[in-house]
Amino acid sequence: MGSICGDSQPHHVVLFPFMSKGHTIPLLHLARLLLHRSLTVTIFTTPANRPFIFESLNDTTVTILDLPFSHNVPDIPVGIENTDKLPSMSMLPSFANAAKLMQPDFERALQTLPSVSFMVSDGFLWWTLESASKFNIPRFVYYGMSYYSSCVCRAVAIDRLLFGPESDDELISVPRNDFELPFTEPEPKGLQIEFIMEVVIATAKSHGIIFNSFYELEPLFADYWNSECTPKAWPAGPLCLAEPPKGSTEPHNKPKWVQWLDKKHDQGSSVLYVAFGSQAEISPAQLKNIATGLEESKVNFLWVIRKSESEISDGFEERVKDRGIVVREWVDQREILMHESVQGFLSHCGWNSVLESICAGVPIIAWPMMAEQPLNARMVVEEIKVGLRVETCGGTVRGFVKWEGLEKMVKELMEGEKGKEVTKKSKELAEMAKKAMDITD
Ligand code: UDP
């Protein structure tokens, strides 16, 4: 970045994360890295997202500016408490369009700020390119995906959108089952395609891309991106290693689930962590099958579910109470994954979850649910070999998972030979991740 930061003033960077946890959290880690290098950081967000950002960075000098958000967002159902937090991926295009209404306020705020050296904005906030250009600020795009899935999306999706299905499979061979357009709701398709194209075009015209990844994890794809795609991209991660989890060391100050993990560790037991990120919606029938699969597997588990998914099945928690705990709160996932007792992760393969698991040396049972998660799952299982794939009904990527299949994979990961192989590989990659971030034990 030397060419754009040529003077001796402390450089001022504007960060603008998208309003969902999976997109915000890595940029907060990036903020720490920038502050650590003595840059000044201003973060833009919305009122509903401000408290989370404030709590995460309240020990730093970062400035947080919140812009008003439209409260008449089409497709966001009445009753959603804060319209300025993306409640579910199915609402993404209309939510992202509503975010564009912040542009005039964003530009008014930029006018009042001390000189900005560069901006890092989430790719979904495509319109920040126009704002950045007006103020002559180089715009970097934060891409919340791996190089792998970005290359596949670029090679397959964009070509398919522009040139039709016959353009598939030219450069990177991915079975059709593992590739879907990131937004799978049938309607309104026009809105989705328009949105994707806005994002892609604004990204292509930006100064560069910041990937939350590290070169050694996916060298072929990092090289592919920089030889075949524009703009140039840099791996800045794994950003989850930018700071250790805040977790307390005082036993009585620890959340109850960490105390539970401590107890399991003292007993010499290993634990499967089960969580599907902040956006996935799981049906009651699917929840019941997960519960039965976990119960029949006889492994210890810590299962984080969303508050709205509180019904599991009658008597389940009581029956498994000696070896399983269900948590209905926001947890510090990194703290859980780094806990010594956690030896496996049943995950939806959101990119942050994958990276956090890799950095903790914890192997994954890959159960992709939406967006580019099928590609992440494929990368986890077939490319970097740190996980096993859950079996879905009918072999479709996002299909229903029956408890019998789940039980089998859970046992295989926690006790089987394949589990041992992927655990070994996970631990090797965890060491490489630390080296990439200059962290040594
Ligand atoms: N997360 C967390 N606590 C929770 C739920 C999620 O810390 O209770 C974090 C998780 O560690 C990750 C992010 O939220 O950093 C979720 O991002 P991911 O890409 O895995 O999935 P998404 O939520 O975007 O589907």
UniProtKB/TrEMBL annotation:
<dbReference type="GO" id="GO:0035251">
    <property type="term" value="F:UDP-glucosyltransferase activity"/>
</dbReference>
<protein>
    <recommendedName>
        <fullName>Glycosyltransferase</fullName>
        <ecNumber>2.4.1.-</ecNumber>
    </recommendedName>
</protein>
<dbReference type="InterPro" id="IPR035595">
    <property type="entry name" value="UDP_glycos_trans_CS"/>
</dbReference>
<comment type="similarity">
    <text>Belongs to the UDP-glycosyltransferase family.</text>
</comment>
<keyword id="KW-0808">Transferase</keyword>
<keyword id="KW-0328">Glycosyltransferase</keyword>
<dbReference type="Pfam" id="PF00201">
    <property type="entry name" value="UDPGT"/>
</dbReference>
<dbReference type="InterPro" id="IPR002213">
    <property type="entry name" value="UDP_glucos_trans"/>
</dbReference>
